[in-house]
Design brief:
With 207 residues, the protein is mainly alpha-helical. It has a domain at 80-205. The chain has helices spanning 15-18, 30-44, 51-58, 62-68, 72-95, 102-114, 119-132, 136-159, 164-183, 193-205. α6 (102-114) runs antiparallel to α8 (136-159), α6 (102-114) packs across α10 and α7 (119-132) crosses α8 (136-159). It starts with 14 loop residues before the first helix and ends with a helix.
């Protein structure tokens, strides 16, 4: 009889004999690892983003992680790239130029970014920015995204008829406003917040 090699890492006892059904092997692609990492980052910050924590959260072994990533730094690089690409796609969507409707597009950008953000989205944004305070690579990625944000709205202001210098100041003012709103608690500041935000928007984009 032919002798078959035995895989010592796998329990060769039939599942039926062990008294339980066979469990399907979990397969995670790199994007799933990155998404799980972002969830942990939002909850526990960069210090809490560890391979063993991710593996436990995903229900797999650490060995499964190293199938896709050389080390933890490779995962961190992927997280930054994923966040950067997602933010740039979002910026392009919100600030896409429609000829002759630049001011309407600016109003839309203020409305979208000034709206109450979901808790998870804000937690991710804050975690990335806190990470950037202590890590040069993360800081560079955040700066790239912020400069892209500012330049897209600058182009809208220029297309609306403003000088480049004025467009830059308005663009910075726009994001200072919407990011400030996303961090502040002001629901009891005014009885008509919708009207208040509209007046703020008009001041930012008016001639």
């Amino acid at each position: 009889m032919e002798n078959k090699p035995v895989n010592s890492s796998v329990d060769s006892t039939p599942s039926k004999a062990r008294g339980r059904p066979a469990l399907p092997r979990v397969q995670l692609d790199p994007e799933r690892w990155v998404e799980a990492a972002i969830d942990v980052l939002a909850r526990d910050g960069i210090a809490g983003l560890r391979v063993e924590v991710l593996a436990k959260r995903c229900g797999v072994t650490k060995g499964s992680f190293y199938w896709h990533f050389k080390d933890r730094q490779a995962l961190l690089d992927a997280v930054l790239a994923f966040w950067k690409d997602g933010r740039i796609r979002d910026i392009e969507k919100v600030t896409s130029v429609a000829p002759g409707k630049e001011r309407e597009q600016l109003r839309y950008a203020i409305e979208v970014y000034g709206a109450s953000r979901n808790r998870k989205g804000m937690a991710i944004e804050l975690a990335i920015r806190d990470w950037a305070r202590h890590d040069a690579q993360a800081a560079m990625v955040v700066e790239t995204v912020d400069l892209y944000r500012l330049d897209c709205t600058r182009k809208l202001f220029v297309a609306a008829g403003m000088s480049d210098a004025e467009a830059k100041s308005r663009s910075l003012l726009l994001y200072a406003c919407v990011f400030g709103l996303s961090l502040m608690h002001y629901s009891h500041f005014d009885n008509d917040l919708s009207n208040l935000k509209q007046r703020i928007a008009e001041r930012i984009i008016s001639d």
